[in-house]
Design goal:
It contains 7 helices and 22 strands. The protein is an alpha/beta fold.
Length: 417
């Protein structure tokens, strides 16, 4: 064969191969591009969202809650973060009609839809020329806003005696508003009086015998004990145990008002040491004025330092009771619960039981720390609080051998856990 003919033939084969390769490449590219375009079309049509893409602050919501229609199968849903106001991302994963995994992203708006709470009486009395803050007459607060605006609206004259029909008004940063009508009585002050209202008369309180509580409430599933602080003075723990007490909750300390110092109960060390010696199971509590999570964490670490070396089988209780001056705290109910959770999480991580103390009324209205145990205070013949609780403070008028004066009596329940 002529070499030139061979070379021409070879060149033609190479060209043909290149043409075929280019054709295949173009076909593949077109197919890929068409597939991409088709998938984009399918994905664009796969998800239809609801018109309302807002979610209330603090609620539990998932991305799928905002999907109107899904042309495919949901494979993985994700919870939406709702603890900050404003725009936040939501996402979920699904398998489309071509059996391909996809992830969808969209934005939702976390909004405040809850008006502040107002708790108070139908009438209040102040003296003429009262110069206090009328906004502090009632307990009020918001679920999110640490500083809602509080005011009293209506026609009234603090320089003139009389009864005025007015409204207590609380407005949060998002514009949610609550109103509570009440009567404002302005009266002439008693001679030499420098208080806003006259003091209430005291009354002799009948004591509750510890033995009687034992008789009424002791079962195989309960233990009866006491809680004490410096108010009980020097306790004879041997006599207390001999009288039938099965445990003791001891105040470790307290905070000296908002932003105040932490003070050790002056009888704490004596109480915990002697209760340990006689073999009584012990728990401790800290009376807090925490108005932030950071403050609460500092308090928890301080408490943990103070109980080092002692047997504290019944854990640590967070005791926050400053409802009469809650308005001064400068915090929302969200911040309050976050503070309690931070304190209790800290002691729990350190290996101790963690409890929240509260009366039935405030547990129902404000507290929300279900992941921790509850110590409920209700001075009644039964507990009406419907949540779970480990301890019941049944009275503050108890009498037991070994303590001079009144003492709180408590019932601890074995929940079979």
């Amino acid at each position: 064969m002529d070499p030139r003919t061979f070379l021409v033939g070879k060149r033609r084969l190479v060209i043909c191969a290149m043409v075929v390769s280019l054709g295949l490449f173009l076909f593949s590219a077109i197919w890929v591009l068409r597939d991409i375009a088709e998938n984009k079309r399918i994905d664009a049509e796969a998800v239809t969202y609801k018109n309302d893409l807002t979610v209330p602050f603090g609620t539990t919501a998932k991305a799928s809650d905002f999907v109107e229609n899904l042309n495919g199968t949901l494979s993985d849903d994700f919870e939406i973060k709702t603890d900050e106001l404003g725009e936040t991302e939501a996402s979920f994963e699904y398998i489309n009609v071509k059996n391909r995994h996809r992830k969808a992203h969209f934005k939702v708006e976390v909004v405040d839809v809850t008006a502040p709470q107002i708790h108070g009486r139908s009438a209040y009395t102040v003296y003429e020329n009262y110069d206090g803050d009328l906004g502090s007459l009632m307990l009020s607060g918001d679920d999110i806003d640490d500083h809602p605006k509080r005011s009293v609206e209506g026609d009234y004259d603090l320089s003139k005696t009389g009864s005025y029909d007015v409204e207590y008004v609380a407005v949060d940063e998002s514009g949610n508003e609550s109103r509570k009508p009440f009567t404002l009585n302005v009266v002439t002050p008693a001679q030499n009086s420098n208080t806003a209202t006259a003091p209430a008369d005291g009354a002799e309180v009948e004591r509750t015998e510890f033995a009687e509580i034992v008789k009424q409430h002791k079962t195989d599933a309960t233990k009866i004990g006491i809680d004490v602080s410096a108010w009980q003075g020097g306790v004879d723990w041997t006599k207390v145990k001999q009288a039938g007490a099965e445990f003791a909750i001891i105040r470790l300390g307290y905070q000296d008002g908002y932003d105040g110092a932490y003070e050790l109960d002056r009888y704490f060390e004596r109480n915990v040491e002697e209760a340990n010696v006689v073999g009584l199971p012990v728990g401790v509590y800290f009376y807090s004025y925490a108005n932030s999570a950071d403050e609460a964490k500092k308090q928890a670490k301080w408490v943990l330092e103070k109980i080092r070396g002692y047997r504290v089988e019944l854990g640590v209780t967070f005791d926050w009771e400053n409802w009469t001056n809650f308005n001064e705290a400068g915090m929302s109910f969200w911040t309050l619960n976050k503070s309690a959770k931070t304190f209790l999480d800290t002691v729990q991580k350190a290996g101790y039981r963690s409890l929240l103390y509260g009366s039935t009324n405030y547990l129902k209205l404000f507290w929300d720390v279900p992941e921790h145990e509850t110590w409920v205070a209700q001075y009644y013949d039964r507990v009406t609080y419907e949540g779970d609780y480990t301890l019941w403070q049944i009275c503050d008028t108890g009498r037991i051998d070994g303590i001079n004066g009144a003492v709180d009596i408590d019932i601890m329940y074995d929940r079979g856990e």
